[in-house]
C-alpha cells in the first residue's frame, strides 16, 4: 500500500488529508483519484506530485513507493 497525503486545496477537494492506495502506477492512481474524488478534477493537473520526496510529472510504477504527496500551487513567496 502507498500512503497518499493531500495538502491545502487538494485536501479540501479530496475530503481527507491522507489515504492508503494500491494502484500499480502513478497514471492509474491519478485516474482513480479523480474518479473517487471528482472535486480533484480541476486541481490535480496543477498539483506537484512528490513520489517518496521526488517530484514526478510522468508515469511510473508504484510497487516500491511508500509515500506520495499531492501539493497544489501555493500563492505568495
Overview of the molecule:
The protein has 77 residues and is an alpha+beta fold. The chain has 2 helices and 5 strands, in the order E-H-E-H-E-E-E. Strands 2-1-5-3-4 form a 5-stranded mixed β-sheet. A hairpin with a 2-residue loop joins strand 3 (48-51) and strand 4. The longest helix has 11 residues, at 26-36. The protein is globular and about 25 Å long. The model has no long low-confidence stretch (mean pLDDT 95).
What brief labels describe this structure?
77 residues
| Contiguous uncertain segments of 5+ residues | none
| Separation of the first and last Cα atoms | 35 Å
The radius of gyration is: 11 Å
Number of strands: 5
What would a concise description of this structure say?
With 77 residues, the protein is α+β, with helices and mostly antiparallel strands. It has two helices and five strands; from the N terminus they run E-H-E-H-E-E-E.
